[in-house]
Amino acid sequence: MNVAPGRGARIILAMLPFILIAIIYVIGSAERRAANPDDKLLPPISEMVETSKRLVAEPDRRSGDYVLWTDTTASLQRLALGLGIAALVGLTLGVAIGLLPVAGAGFGTLVAVLSMIPPMAVLPILFIIFGLGELSKVVLIIIGVTPMLVRDISLEVAAMPREQLIKAQTLGASTWQVAIRVVLPQIMPRLIKCLRLMIGPAFLFLISAEAIAADAGLGYRIFLVRRYLSMDVILPYVAWITLLAYLLDLALVLISRRAFPWAHEREAR
Predict the structure, then answer these.
(1) How high is the pLDDT of residue 236?
(2) What's the CA gap between 17 and 241, in Å, rounded?
């Protein structure tokens, strides 16, 4: 536990699992193709590369769209809107419940109960109420993410040292000023951390909704081609979704470090 790898060793150790996975896949693909030249379960990497080039650089014959970029744009717009609204609502309610005893008594139990509802169970209800358009997909992300954000933020606010709040009130700060100038700056790094943890579930809700009712999107494309067993499309799409999620997580980390360096210094200590 006292041995820490250097920078070069960290890079090698980080890449090693991916290399091993790639080697295992290549061997498995070659063995399946040797046994059955028409096998579609594990297409060769070269075949997936060619398919990816077509999806990226060649317009669709029917629609004229560049399929991968059209799907990515549609999905990211839904994801950004859903996460953005969820973050705003989660921050507002979380601070209120954690800071105000009346709000905590009135909404704390309700939020705890709502967070236990499986979001996918209400998807048919959302389609019935909001239709099959964009709104139902965005609302599913909001319903799936917001309760967890509210609970986490409220617990973090409630755990803040009471001395800080008392000192601010002693200096004449109102409840609003305490929330804006004392609580909010300290809670923002936690909000970003919560959003990082919610990226995976948000993608799950998004892809599930797109698979049922959509005409564009990453989830829509995966479930469209599954009937043809087009693993040369599905696997690159899964890898692309994973890369997008990783890049979003990295972007949030960079934003947090630049905007709130003191929080990361405290974590390092």
Answers:
(1) 92
(2) 19
